[in-house]
Amino acid sequence: MRGVGVLFALLLSTSLAASERVKTVLVFVPEDGMVPSIADFTRSFHLTMLGERQKPVTVNIEYLDMGWFQGADYDRALHEFYRSKYREQRPEALVVFADACPFVLKLQQELWPQVPLLAVLNDKPLVEALPESAFIRGNWADLDVPGTVRMALRLLPSTRRVALVLGSSQRELAAWDFVESEVRGAAPDREFIGLRGLTLEQLRQRVHTLPEDTVVILVGFMQDAQGQSLVGRDVLTQLHAEGSPPIFSVHKTMLGSGIVGGALLDYELLGQQAAKRTLQLLKGAPLSSLPTGAFDTNLVAFDDRELQRWHIPDSRLPPGGRVFFREPGLWERYRWQVTVAVGAGLLQAVLILVLLVERRLRRVAQRLNAAVLDSLPGSVAILDRNGVVLRATPAPERPESLGGLPAGKLLAPGAAYLEAFREAARSGHPEVEGVASLLQDVLAGRASEGALEFRGFAPDRWLELRARRLDLPEGGAVAALVDVTARRRAELEARQARDERAHLERVSAVGELGVSIAHELNQPLAAILTNAETAQRLLQRSPTDMGLLREMLQDIIADDKRAGEVIRHMRALLKKEGAAEGTHDLNELVGQVVRLVGNDAQLRGAVLSLRLADTALRVRGDGVQLQQVVLNLIINALDAVGPCPPGERQVWVRTQRTDGHVELAVEDTGVGLSPEVQKRLFEPFFTTKPTGLGMGLSISRSILEVHQGRLQAESRPGRGTVFRCSLPAA
């Protein structure tokens, strides 16, 4: 018996736990879920139930589509469907909305006679018509048509006609007389226009042809006269167009789609209140304990865009009315920005006032020394202790008198004279660093005076700066810029003439042809000598390796032919004869040169890396001349890495195709190029090698220009130099 009692207790507790675990609420709504009012009501009801219910709950919502599907056959089919669907289920609460109430009352009597039913209806008479039962409780959410009409007349007092729009579904036709009486009662002294029994197109045309002093009250439009199912908000969108009269409604779901406003039923708020009363039922509260009367869910609201359209001032709005979609004003939207702008304006005004006072004081000081300054030679400026111009002579009529220096930064009152030279030194003019140092020493008192010549920014212009410290308590200095180009040019011309005569005496015996041959034939002649000496040693061996000897002789013949080709092509180039053109693979030309200098690179302890493009790079031109360019660049790169420690002598040769051109790049890790060397790199006879002739890069550039190409040099990141050759692709 004890075991049976324990088993019974377990079964009872399990049953009670199961009953408490999940409770079901069944909601019936008359329309489809795509109707905005139904969607707002059901969504709000469902979210409130799930959010405020502490225990599990299931909310089943049934959409009856009664506005779009009508007739006795549909009602019978719908009745049989739900009888079959819920015959074996018993919800804890029933909620029925509006016109679905008669249908659900029948279901309740047959399936759930003792399940509490909460009815949410449209007006008080419908609630009073409900059958008296302990399991039925009705509340209403009134569609305040009279309030909306009175509100429209308040906002538009010149209105003379009120048009009522209602659809042609059975429920809308049945409600017409009641709604018409409400409209007439709210506007007894206005003409009434009834818009019913129309197709959508007929309704649209009628509304757009209404007199100007008419307001439209849109209560609903579920079907038109042809039986076309519609959504009221979509109908409103078609009625609201340019030239249409002002439209009012009783549904908040239409706010923002074209209505001016009205006493609007908020279906989201209605869903929340219905859900909260249903939750009380799930907690065990009797149905009779729920509040009676109407839900407080109407909202007086307006669309600001429509108020602006119909020129309705805020003074006509009723107390407590809310305005939606109002664009914030300038101050509301940009309060912080306006505050900053006003503050900045005030600050700017203060700064301008200070500058005007300072300018006046400065002009007084300028008049005291204007006569003295104007009588001095050159461009003179009086500086304060920080190197700022207090007074200066006018800018010269010829800008070249300042050698390209910015007159606005040197001779304008208030200009930073010293900082102008510092900035010029930082921006690529190191020749003026000494000028800035001299000025700094004089202004700081480390020197009483000084003078310095320097090259101006303009080509071939020289200036002299003379600075003298002012013997004043506040310090300062007088700085004068004098153009000494004429004197400097005479000195340079005399020196250049002497240097050119000495150079011509050294190179006159050799000439341009000898220089080119000496530079370009060094490699093939060295190779001929090496192969000949090797062949001699092979002949002294016994037995003689005839195959190797034959190979050496072939190399000698090839190098000799190459030397002859170099001489012939260089003579043609110097005589300005046309080059022997042909189509060549740049990869192949570069590869031949790299094989030629490979041994030389090894002897120098350098690593020569070849990285050719994957595909052939066709170019048109003289192959021998192009190989001369490649050879010269590689030899220069090997010479450049010579001073580097072993292991750091790296030379890379690369080819690639870029935008209709082919490119050769020779990159080294050598000492690199100074700015002065880079400026003169391609000048004839200029060289940085102790034994160089200074013709290699000049000749290489000439060859590439003949081939419509170009040669340029740039510093390599870190250390070294990159030479780039670009040629048109064939």
UniProtKB/TrEMBL annotation:
Annotated keywords: Membrane, Phosphoprotein, Signal, Transmembrane, Transmembrane helix
Catalytic activity: ATP + protein L-histidine = ADP + protein N-phospho-L-histidine
EC number(s) given by UniProt: 2.7.13.3
Regions that span the bilayer: 336-357
Residue ranges occupied by any Histidine kinase domain in the UniProt entry: 516-730
Signal peptide annotation: 1-18
EC top class, as a word: transferase
Name recorded for this polypeptide: histidine kinase
Taxonomic placement: Bacteria, Pseudomonadati, Myxococcota, Myxococcia, Myxococcales
